[in-house]
Design brief:
Layout (H helix, E strand, L loop, with lengths): L3 E10 L6 H8 L20 H6 L2 H17 L8 E4 L5 H12 L7 H6 L4 H10 L5 E4 L5 H16 L3 E7 L6 H4 L6 E8 L8 E8 L9 H9 L6 H9 L3 E5 L6 E8 L2 H4 L1
Parallel strand pairs: 2-3, 2-4
Antiparallel strand pairs: 1-5, 1-6, 4-5, 6-8, 7-8
């Protein structure tokens, strides 16, 4: 079996899903899924000037990362990070395209520095006071799978915790019609090399040609397909339900990610 690591805590934010506590109840079938627009909080931890410059993508990434860190009891400043997104800040891209198409094209310096793919990682380092290494990935619809595989490999190799932050926000028209992401969705996993009293599950990852696991609930399946970060839902459901087994997640066009899950029980944490 490939090297295994542990999911210590989870941050979750998406349409009708305000955090992991609510999301796990929905995924476990303890309460119905009710779609509602994703509520993005103001970015915590940033100075006022930086807060004014942030858009939906940064607010989403910071919110889920801070949820996961808070649930773990660890210090965000001590954690290396992996950020993964299929497209980063679509609202900002749209505004830049409009500016470049204007008769007198002028580029805002703030928009320019927010246009780079690693902008959320930069804002995270300011908010968390983090000086640890940060990797920033993009793999189109397989972005969560790429980030998860990187996280498992990094934690297994370095024998140190790592925070994975996966997020997607949409575009305005006309880009929305070509790349529809209807609602912001993000998930953060704090991965560790050893189990603790808070650990949720032990996981391992490998590649497979098997088809991706789908959600039995039609509304949750629609959500899974709505954003690349939401491809994590089968894994999240297995954790929420305490299921032992495997799920298959989207990764590359003809190659997917097989993830094994073993829920943690008190005896397994001793």
């Amino acid at each position: 079996m490939p090297s295994s690591v542990f999911i210590e805590s989870i941050g979750l934010l998406g349409p009708g899903l305000g955090d992991w506590t609510q999301g796990s109840a929905v995924l476990a079938g303890q309460q119905p899924y009710i779609h509602a627009p994703t509520a993005l909080p103001a970015p915590a931890g940033l100075p006022q000037a930086e807060r004014r410059r942030t858009g939906p993508t940064v607010r989403l990434a910071l919110a889920i990362g801070q949820q996961a860190v808070a649930a773990s009891g660890m210090d965000a400043a001590d954690l290396p990070t992996i950020f993964t997104s299929s497209s980063a800040d679509g609202q900002n891209f749209h505004a830049i395209c409009e500016a470049l198409a204007a008769p007198d094209p002028l580029m805002s310096p703030t928009r320019f520095h927010n246009s780079v793919h690693n902008a959320p990682a930069g804002y995270w380092s300011i908010a968390a006071g983090a000086m640890r290494p940060s990797n920033v990935l993009c793999a189109m619809d397989g972005s969560f799978g790429a980030g998860f595989l990187e996280g498992v490999a990094q934690v297994a190799a370095d024998q140190a915790p790592c925070l994975l932050i996966a997020y997607d926000t949409g575009y305005p028209e006309p880009l929305h019609s070509h790349r529809p992401i209807p609602d912001p969705f993000g998930v953060a996993l704090l991965l560790t090399p050893q189990a603790t009293a808070r650990t949720l599950a032990q996981v391992w990852a490998g590649v497979t040609h098997a088809p991706a696991t789908t959600m039995a609930d039609a509304a949750l399946e629609q959500l899974r397909k709505s954003a690349p970060a939401a491809r994590a839902l089968p894994l999240l459901q297995a954790v929420a339900t305490g299921t032992t087994g495997t799920v298959v997640l989207d990764y590359l066009d003809e190659l997917r990610l097989e993830v094994g899950i073993t829920p943690m029980v008190p005896d397994a944490r001793d």
